[in-house]
Design goal:
2 domains, globular, mainly alpha, 277 residues
């Protein structure tokens, strides 16, 4: 397990470094806009910085959880008593205390503007940290609870595989620890429908002009499309990615009412393909 978690830590660092660079670019963009519209070094300037940082905290947590979930599930890491604490410890440097400086970024800038450093109205990033920490912890706890209920694999002994080609399919199971399953693959048309729904979602995100809010969701949509274009696509991974996309865009629902509909369309298309695993 430790080898998998070490890989996850390295991947998380890469994702966070890339995201941090984007956050700095967003903060610089706010400064440029403030100068152009005459509110540079003002309370409004600081409020917009605080908002950027608040959104960045939520995105960062979503990106980190996507990496952790992918690593643990792809490697088949089994449940253990310390797994939840291990996963939470990986995000701790980026979410606890000042969330890597994001919760107090606006206040630090206020001091450079000659304003009081602790301004009561700069609370959005702090609230985002608390809210996101609780979300992340609950996601980890729920994931580990579900993983704990997965039964341990019994001792393996080879058993025959019977293929039945028929319009009506049943199952046949014999002997201790034998298994019977029905596996129905997803046809190219079904996969194409999921891809089409994802492309519609991409169009709605782009049309909403959400700026940096759209960055992480668009990357995840790309990953989802790439997965669904594989000959043996993993629909469960796409469902996980869609959950993260939903989280990343939760703050944009009021500004882009068509996005939730597009997300639900992808979900419904996937639900019709539950036999794809």
């Amino acid at each position: 397990m430790q080898e998998v978690l070490n890989i996850a830590r390295r991947q998380v660092q890469v994702v966070v470094d890339r995201h941090s660079a984007q956050v700095e670019a967003d903060i610089a963009s706010v400064g440029s806009r403030a100068s152009a519209h005459g509110f540079s070094r003002s309370g409004r300037h600081l409020l917009e910085i605080d908002k950027v940082c608040a959104e960045a905290i939520e995105k960062r947590a979503a990106l980190v959880w996507e990496v952790l979930h992918r690593c643990v599930t792809s490697a088949g890491v089994p449940y253990s008593d310390g797994l939840a604490d291990e996963l939470k410890s990986i995000v701790a440097p980026y979410l606890s205390n000042t969330a890597g400086g994001l919760t107090h970024r606006a206040n630090v800038m206020a001091q450079s503007f000659g304003l009081p450093r602790e301004l009561d109205y700069l609370q959005e990033a702090i609230a985002s940290q608390d809210r996101t920490q609780r979300w992340f912890d609950s996601e980890v706890d729920l994931f580990c609870l579900a993983l704990a209920k997965v039964p341990a694999k019994p001792h393996y002994s080879p058993h025959p595989i019977i293929n039945i080609h028929s319009s009506t399919v049943g199952t046949l199971q014999t002997g201790d620890y034998s298994t019977a399953s029905v596996s129905m693959s997803m046809g190219e048309n079904s996969q194409a429908q999921v891809v089409a729904a994802l492309e519609t979602l991409r169009s709605e995100v782009l049309a909403a002009r959400l700026g940096t809010t759209a960055e992480a969701p668009l990357v995840l949509i790309d990953e989802s499309v790439s997965e669904m274009e594989k000959p043996a696509a993993d629909a469960n991974r796409v469902r996980s990615l869609l959950s993260t996309i939903r989280l990343c865009l939760s703050s944009a629902i009021d500004a882009a009412p068509k996005i939730p509909q597009a997300i639900e369309s992808v979900q419904k298309t996937l639900d019709l393909c539950r036999t794809l695993t």
